[in-house]
Design goal:
Chain lengths: 429, 429
């Protein structure tokens, strides 16, 4: 990282932060500095969603998620850069500047929660809040080598969030360890009368998901992966085989749901959520965001119901998979584009990035995105551990075993640079 | 009933029925004749949904619900009249003729499952299938003095149904006893790969609903009821007090959901379901149905998502009520219109009829509509016993106690003609 990546959109005064740290209540997050994505309200700072036209909209009260962190002792320090209106997976769709990965100035940070992920990966804060509708809390985790938790929809309240797709939006966390994600989730989770989509967790995770996940679903067929990604994925599969039994499962119907999100119906929800703001933003609107979202104005209600029907069919078709596995392992992205790749094809590159993330929220799943080792070129590789709604805790258990935290050791993701023999020996052991 | 009410749209040949009876498999419904609403496929008969333009659409296979009844020994005899495209609660919106109540030639049968309800009430069959999106399986039960069961959404598959609102449509039963409804539900329930909205029942009913419901919620405020209905409702409350403890609960937010169904968003789902058929029906389209549904064509996708958001808020606001009660008691309708009332104001009379039924499917509730005694003028009065999703069995238990079946005795609904002293004595006892 060259130190000039535009992580922040606004920040509290350092003296103010120091005073808040001193006054922080004694809780599980006592004194922890927190970065907050700029589509989540923090009292005293504007909520721009990376649209400068909104820069005078200073929040008078904090989002429920932020208030819960503060009540646990955490201290918000500022608001982070993002793909405008949380519409993008690249981290470049911002008038405040494009973010790059902490691993390479030439490669994108991923988005839409770009600044939050980079702030954690760069060591500026131990915890950041993001949001995730199509992968925005996972893609930048993958591209910066950290942990991104997208909890079950409704588990963490979204009150105080400038919506992308209100029925799908999730508040997410970025951390450097799974343990930190677990602590944050315990603080953040719980229903909220201010968010109609929030819901209480049932007393137990789904009955058919093992508390200690052992059956790891992997795609039965080939995946669309860049060559460097493909090498890292192979190593990740070998790492997974050390943690449980790999069960090949069909994933076509999971991936098919992606078409709904940007192919029509759910664009209308984006339009409902922020179309008026986008319309009024004039020159401040990011051209790619405007191009993607404006067709949402013309989606008919009948098309939305046809989409809900199609989604119900995909949900029904995919549900039986969870009877055979405890978690589904997928790469987070098919590749890691350069800033130049995005500039050359802003829409195409973004669409492909969501191949393995878009379906998750639509199908009411939860997911922990974890580091999955390094590619031969040294860039980080990320994987997703996916489960059905309310399997958050078993997934975090598996994620901790994945990173090596469960054994008390340091993070031990697979390394594609290691000689093949080493990996194979570890598998045999 | 004057014998001329147009119950049937099509019927099998009597010889054919006799042959099927003789060949019926030995099951819990062995030899029972069944009437089927004409929006549900029965192989060999057309599915018109009361639109003569569809009279040549002969079904080549039966709906899942019909096949399950046949596998249990039942014998379909024909297809019944209905409000066209299941859009109406009156029973008069049909080119095949308006149905009247078995209790009065001058009063409507209710709808949209008019012919099915009348066939059972008149004793022609012991069991009929209807459908219910807004009350179509309950209003005609109330107006004909029989039992109408609207199970939890998705419990009985809707494959083979010409949809009204696909995400809300339920296949329902009409019977003269609660016991018959229970037997039919046991045969009909269970998921179906052909219906994306079908879902399995959890192993147990909701944990907070007593298996033997005792806490009966009643509206805390006044209701909109015609004078004759109000007298019967008072007697019904006294009857309810004999079966459990009455708990006043707020119902405004339940009733508010009704506005969504016909006020905009969900009209788009009707348009998605049968708009093309309605458009092509020309002179065969019922004018009221056309007037109600055509605006669904112009509902925007954004408006639908705003509606889903509003519905989520109403669901969240109403859910806590189920922690305090085991069932909610409401009248099925605010009054019992004459055929002449509907002719004078086809839309207004219909809208008011759905006051207490429209919200149920939207809020994912189940309900048993049972006879609630007689009005002073001798017309039947009907009430609904409503519960959360998958409380079907506890509700049927309460319904059986309501009708007196549980005690082994004959049906003993309250009678508004009885001297007040008698009723009060019974309450005291």
């Amino acid at each position: 990282m060259n130190g000039t990546t535009p992580i922040w959109i606004s920040r509290f005064d350092p003296d103010d932060i120091a005073a808040r740290e001193a006054a922080a209540p004694d809780g599980p997050l006592r004194g922890q500095l927190v970065a907050v994505k700029d589509n989540i309200d923090v009292a005293g700072l504007p909520t721009t969603a990376a649209c400068p036209a909104l820069a005078d909209r200073v929040a008078t009260r904090s989002a429920t998620a932020v208030s819960r962190l503060e009540a646990a002792g955490a201290v918000p320090v500022g608001k982070t850069n993002m793909d405008q209106f949380a519409t993008g997976l690249v981290g470049t769709r911002s008038p405040y500047g494009a973010c790059s990965s902490v691993f390479s100035d030439a490669h994108i940070s991923g988005g839409s929660s770009s600044g939050s992920a980079v702030a954690v990966a760069a060591g500026l804060v131990p915890l950041a809040l993001g949001t995730d509708t199509a992968g925005s809390g996972r893609v930048p985790a993958a591209f910066n080598g950290i942990v991104g938790l997208k909890p079950t929809r409704g588990l963490v309240p979204a009150a105080g969030l400038l919506p992308a797709c209100r029925s799908l939006d999730c508040v997410t966390t970025f951390t450097r360890t799974v343990a930190a994600a677990r602590t944050a989730l315990a603080v953040l989770a719980g229903p909220d009368p201010a968010d109609p989509w929030s819901r209480p967790a049932p007393p137990r995770p789904p009955a058919h998901i093992a508390a200690r996940p052992r059956l790891i679903g992997v795609p039965a067929g080939p995946l669309d992966l860049d060559p460097e990604h493909a090498v890292a994925w192979k190593a990740a599969l070998e790492h997974a085989a050390r943690l449980g039994r790999l069960v090949p499962v069909p994933v076509d119907e999971f991936l098919a749901a992606a078409a709904l999100l940007y192919g029509g119906p759910w664009l209308a929800e984006r339009w409902a959520g922020f179309g008026a703001l986008l319309d009024a933003a004039g020159p401040h609107a990011d051209p790619a965001v405007r191009a993607v979202v404006t067709p949402g104005r013309d989606v008919t209600g009948a098309a939305v119901f046809a989409g809900l029907d199609r989604l119900a069919a995909l949900r029904q078709a995919t549900e039986p998979v969870w009877l055979d596995i405890d978690a589904l392992l997928l790469p987070t992205t098919p590749g890691h584009p350069r800033l130049a790749d995005v500039a050359a094809d802003p829409l195409g590159v973004n669409t492909r990035l969501g191949t393995y993330t878009n379906f998750v929220n639509l199908l009411d799943l939860c997911v922990v995105a974890v580091p999955g080792g390094s590619r031969p070129d040294g860039l980080p590789f990320g994987v997703q551990l996916i489960g059905p709604a309310f399997a958050d805790r078993p997934l975090l258990d598996l994620a901790a075993r994945w990173t090596g935290e469960a054994a008390g050791g340091p993070s031990a993701p697979p390394d594609a640079d290691a000689p093949a023999g080493t990996v194979l020996l570890a598998v045999a052991g």
